Amino acid sequence: MATKNITVVGAGLVGSLLSIYLAKKGHIVNVYERRPDMRSAAIPAGRSINLALSDRGWRGLEGAGIGDAIRAIAIPMSGRMMHGVDGTLNYQPYGKEGQAINSVSRRILNMTLMDCAEQYPNITLHFNHRATDCDIDAPWVAFENTHTGEQSRVESDIIIGSDGAFSAIRERMQKTDRYNFSQDYLEHAYKELTIPPADDGGFRMEKNALHIWARKSFMMIALPNTDGSFTCTLFFPYKGEVSFEQLRTEDDVRVFFNEYFPDAVPMMPTLIEDFFGNPTSSLVTMRAFPWVYGNTAALIGDAAHAIVPFYGQGMNCGFEDCVVMSDCIDASGGDWTAAFANYERNRKPNGDAIAQLALDNFIEMRDKVADPDFLLRKKIEAKLHAEYPRSFTPLYTLVTFSPDVPYSEALRRGRENDTLMDAILAIPGVHDRWDDEDVRSAVQSFVQ
Fold this sequence. Notes:
- With about 450 residues, this protein is α/β, with parallel strands linked by helices.
- It is built from 15 helices and 19 strands.
- The chain has helices at about 15-25, 55-65, 65-70, 105-115, 170-175, 250-260, 270-275, 300-305, 315-330, 335-370, 370-385, 395-400, 405-425, 430-435, 435-445, and strands spanning about 5-10, 30, 50-55, 75, 80-85, 90-95, 100-105, 125, 130-135, 140-145, 150-155, 160, 180-195, 210-215, 220-225, 230-235, 280-290, 290-295, 295-300.
């Protein structure tokens, strides 16, 4: 395969990982990032949302040969820990014994990926370079140095936009003929808060769990960090009777948190400072098509399919993009038009599917996870999967622990599961005796 000079716009998680895949194939890769180098510059807090690294993401990291470097900064979370208003705790395992998702700091993960990328002599990272224009026919990208104001134009063989939900490369692609694009905002926003380490440096809550305070129309979550702290995120309506617009004063915030999250308040000594110091940020789903332009340009990660974070799959999906693009390049025999077309054909349906699944899971996490009927449903699903693993796999397992199952297939099978579970839950008396022999016989007839 002929060596290509490739410009990657965006040195975030996906751009950094993709650069490694491309460099391993012998290509010359220049990565341009509008922000300063986070490894040496102070980056404002408040927009990180700790990430949940699962099997699809691990596949991407292993394929680049850097899985071990990331394991050192990851904390396994084997289930959800539900926090009731009265302080009761309810633990729900995510899958079978040994299965877990992993909490990682976005910042630390990104810095580690950059370090791994810079080990390749054919990768160069350029910081403080904001893309201002591009020509996807030529191709070239124009940049402005955000420190000096200096303008430059970088020519290359291929441009790959990994520059996030508000991608400059996608904006240029939108000016081509028959380009479809949509963005849909939730009525909810998010704000990052903190639970610091205990006085002895340990964790104030269960370390190996994702903590959820589900309150019907809103929720708070907390993910562990390696320093003993938890990064908390409040997902909350912008407007309404209970919303961000109603929390105007310090007393408003104290009253609200003491009413809805009383067990968390004693663990949050910087609550007021965090609440008023950190930004209130939007949650958006973006859909675009096409993702590629001939053999000269392609979109990847959030630039192609920004999603809300409620399935913990945004990063995992982006890393899976890298795997698929790499495989398509290898299979193309040097035909980049075919490589990009096959990448788009494979990933577009799956990007749409995980976007829908993430929206659906917000409702589940916010409204259902503490509901007795929902808990029974999950208990039955786990039992079915244990007894009939070839016939029934829970949706969460399909999405999170089954990297060989495309997101679009997981969505389809999840819909089938819903129909099956509705039929099972309609069996008379199933709530009180779902494990009795006659009920089990009826269940078996549905599964088989």
